[in-house]
Design the sequence.
């Protein structure tokens, strides 16, 4: 671990301010926030800015939950990000992804053409930093312009987050 979570005795008003209005009060404590938030709090201004952006994509974006979780899991798979994978398998199941679909994500396989286009978009952005015209056209048959924008930013945000998690050595949270 290169960057450890902020120790409980260092959670202060600055840490509280960084999370206020973003994370519920019940989760703004070292024993409940999780390793990722604890690690981000090593840099409170960055934590606040990133978490606002990330939470928009997680809770306020125009994407259906199932699609969001499908692409986040593919990002986690491609980046070998165990932390992201574990969290989003749970969220994916809650959003309606079956174990069969989740297993297919790992293999880069999809159950239908739309899921296939979404997984292809993740792969293309990961490898080439651009969604091909064919994939964009396939996605456009199901998503409006704002959804397409949210999709690209969701894939990019979770790719960036996976890079940070992997580089900092953020450990998966223990089951609570």
Sequence:
């Amino acid at each position: 671990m290169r960057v450890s979570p902020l120790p409980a005795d260092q959670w202060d008003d600055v840490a509280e301010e960084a999370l206020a209005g973003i994370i519920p009060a019940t989760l703004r404590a070292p024993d409940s926030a999780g390793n990722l938030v604890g690690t981000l709090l090593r840099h409170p201004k960055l934590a606040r800015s990133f978490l606002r952006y990330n939470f928009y994509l997680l809770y306020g974006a125009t994407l259906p939950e199932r699609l969001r979780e499908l692409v986040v899991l593919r990002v986690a798979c491609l980046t070998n990000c165990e932390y992201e994978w574990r969290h989003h398998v749970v969220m994916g199941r809650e959003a309606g992804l079956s174990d069969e679909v989740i297993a297919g994500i790992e293999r880069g396989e999809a159950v239908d053409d739309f899921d296939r286009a979404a997984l292809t978009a993740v792969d293309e952005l990961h490898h080439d930093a651009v969604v091909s015209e064919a994939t964009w056209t396939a996605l456009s048959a199901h998503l409006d312009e704002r959804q397409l924008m949210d999709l690209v930013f969701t894939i990019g945000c979770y790719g960036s987050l996976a890079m940070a998690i992997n580089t900092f050595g953020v450990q998966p949270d223990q089951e609570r």
Summary: The chain has two domains: 8-59, 63-165.
